Amino acid sequence: MFKRRTLALAAAALLVATSSFAQFADRTIKFTNGVNEDHPVGVGVKKMQEVLAAKTGGKMKINAFWGGAAGGDLPATQALRAGTQEMVCTSSSPLVGIVKELGAFDLPFLFANEKEADAVLDGPAGAYFNKKLEEAGLINLAYWENGFRNLTNSKRPVAKAEDFDGVKVRVMQNNIFLDTFKTLGTNAVPMAFGEVFTALETKTIDGQENPFVTIETSKFNEVQKYLSVTRHAYTPFLVLYSKKLWDQLNPQEQAVLREAAMEGQKVQRAANRSLNEKSLTSLKAKGMQVNEVSAAEQKRMFDKVKPVYDKNVPTIGAEPVKLVMDALKKARGG
Ligand code: TF8
Asked: Mind telling me which residue stretches traverse the membrane in this protein (predicted)?
């Protein structure tokens, strides 16, 4: 009697288990990354894999590729739009040719800290960019973090606004960054991320700019001597899914992917933030000479690049810039 009841219960449980996973098809999702796996993006992707395993009974899987080996930010994003690849984690900046409104994030010295970035990304402004991305064939599942960008170079210490003069700096494929770094006096060259290490190594360029964690995990310290804590931009990571392929998923599959990306966001942002200062210490220990930039000097740099705002806001559009500025004002208590 007891045995039969146990069996019946077990059978019922099995039925619930199989039926709750029946809505998920066996899927292997290709997810490419420009950064290496030891970047906190690796923590976020791992979390996504765990959530998918638990919630779909192992039916939906992520196959992750690292270090740009399966394509850089822009080509991967184009593959998503074409429907030949599911996912990419990319900086927003190289995508301004696709969604011009994203240029709002490229305006120099826009965010002062992570709290401000979160307020913008997790509020109505973030939702607005998601809508624009969707119109371009891209579903943004979550905003993850690359962090505040800092200049490195092999030519000279850069501590004040004048020191940028004549340094040959790689910038992302983005007109606002190009304008900013030209305005600062550098010889700015747009280049895909995947070419940067070699270009630095061969001294085709003197410098580049990225957050500490990306500098360290991409080993730029091996080919760069000087690091300046400029914090001149915070360009978010987008966790994108191909809209063409998204539309082939059922609502449960879509929901579980969104949930996984948001669970991933929590651990990815936390890991990135706890690693940021550690990375700076570690970059120093590995031999980089660090120049802190005082608040007064950062203000001088900002004053120098102010014309970049007036010049580029018409291209970005008044609406996205206003949404970002409103969110910032609110975050600053104004
Ligand atoms: C850049 C970006 C990149 C990231 C990474 C490739 O400098 O900051 O580091 O988008 O995913 O191009």
From this structure: none
Any ligand 1 atom below 6 A from CB of 73: yes
CA distance 30 to 42: 14
DSSP designation for 206: S
The answer, yes or no, to whether any atom of ligand 1 lies below 6 A from the CB of 175, is no
Predicted TM-score of the model (pTM):
0.94
pLDDT at 18 over 60: no
Q: Measure 215 CA to ligand 1 centroid, in angstroms.
A: 10
Separation in Å, CA 283 to CA 105, 113, 227? 26, 21, 9
Positive or negative, the CA dihedral 140, 141, 143, 144 is negative
pLDDT in the model for residue 20: 76
How far does residue 301's CA lie from ligand 1's centre (Å)? 23
As a whole number of angstroms, the distance between CA 66 and CA 224 comes to 22
Phi, psi of 198 (to 5 degrees): -65, -40
In degrees and rounded to multiples of 5, residue 91 shows phi and psi of -65, 150
Q: So what's the ipTM on this one? A: 0.98
Residue 334 CA to ligand 1 centre (angstroms): 33
